[in-house]
Amino acid sequence: HIDSVAFGEITVDGKTHYSDVVLYWNGRLDYRPKSHALSIGEFAEVSKGADAVVVGTGLEGGIRIQGRVVDLAENQKIKLVIGKTDDVKDVFNGLVKEGKKVVAILQTTL
């Protein structure tokens, strides 16, 4: 469960992390290398087995998403939600609550 997002930090299940993260429906959390882009390779890796992927593009929407990411999501029938990180945290929480296999790729800076 994503509790809150602030510049450079995200609180998940009561624990604050000072990094960009990839969060999975089963509670797994991985730190994401600092990058202001989402590549097709990263998306393909983290979306394996997912029903949906939520991409938090930062507090001001600064992350760039390669166009092929959208194509891959459509081809694999993965629901893709893209928005500012603070706006999409509730989407992730809601999909997890519904029992969906959802992954969140979250940028915590700009």
Word description of this protein:
The chain is α/β, with parallel strands linked by helices and 110 residues long. Strand 2 and strand 3 form a beta hairpin. The longest helix has 13 residues.
Which key phrases capture this entry?
five-stranded mixed β-sheet; three-stranded antiparallel β-sheet; alpha/beta; 110 residues
Low-confidence residue ranges:
none
What is the approximate shape?
globular
Oligomeric composition of the shown chains: single chain
Pattern of helices and strands: EEEEEEHEEHEHE
**Count of runs of 4 or more consecutive helical residues:** 3
SSE class = alpha/beta
Estimate percent helicity: 25-40%
How confident overall, as mean pLDDT? 95
For the CA atoms, what is the radius of gyration? 12 Å
Biggest sheet details: 5 strands, mixed
Strand content: 35-45%
Kindly report how far apart the N and C termini lie: 22 Å
